[in-house]
Amino acid sequence: MESIDTPSRNRKKAAPQRTRSQTETAGIQTDLQARIEINAYYKAQARDFAPGYELEDWLAAEKEET
Hints:
By secondary structure, the chain is mainly alpha-helical. Helices cover 59% and strands 0% of the residues.
């Protein structure tokens, strides 16, 4: 038997509600990340996908997008 002080095992916590500005910011960040990913991909493609330059590609793409 559970006491009043013991939380129910079936009870789930509600997800926190996002404000409109948080949702818009999340969308902007998602768009920015997608543009960076695409830009980094094209940089890698220009090098014929030679390994070892992934971080350099990402950082260069990030610098160009921000």
